[in-house]
Amino acid sequence: MKLVLIGLRGTGKSTVGKLLAEQLKRPFFDSDELVQERANLTIRQIFETEGEPSFRERESAVVRELAQQTDAVIATGGGAILNAENVRVLRENAFVVHLSADPSELWRRISQDVSSHANRPQLLASVSSGPEELRKLMLARASHYSQARDVEVGVQDRSPQEVVEKVLLLMRTHGKL
Question: What strands lie across the sheet with 94-100, from one edge to the other?
């Protein structure tokens, strides 16, 4: 059974995913990392030179490939759930966990992540509007996340290890371990 982590940028999908993979003794895959490796470009560069539609095509190709994994932990990009086919293939033989936090917490995390600034497309126009822009993005994607997930785990005020423990508990509760 696959374990798939979805959620907005800043929720810790990659960090938590690596810890879960280690604990579950499964391989870990990050769809954003694979897109970047294959394109030999950062996500920011793909957005700037080819546009978002090209990135989404690349992302979907990687998601389709990762969906073939049987026992793996997969972290998706924040927008992967916008494509219904991505959701369909990821949900097959999988437990899908939506990691979430409130906009001010996400903004704090994103603002402090130097690599995110270098490798990801600009998410927000200005520091003062960050939490408001994230709130709008959350609202726009809320129905996509709710349709894609089996469970939601709030990451706010939890360490990555505490999130891992919560995910493992939910997997046991739902008969997925």
Answer: 28-30, 73-75, 2-6, 94-100, 151-154
Q: Please count the structural domains in the chain.
A: 1
Parallel/antiparallel/unpaired status of strands 151-154 and 28-30 = unpaired
Q: Which H or E run includes 151?
A: strand 151-154
Helix, strand, coil tally for the chain in percent (to 5): 60, 10, 30
Q: What is the pTM of this model?
A: 0.93
| Joined tokens for residue 53 | 């539609």
What is the tens place of the pLDDT at every residue in 113-140?
766 655 666 554 445 577 888 898 899 9
| 106 in Cβ contact with 11 (< 8 Å) | yes
- Residue 26 is part of a domain; what is its CATH number? 3.40.50.300
Helix (H, G, I), strand (E, B) or coil at 165: helix
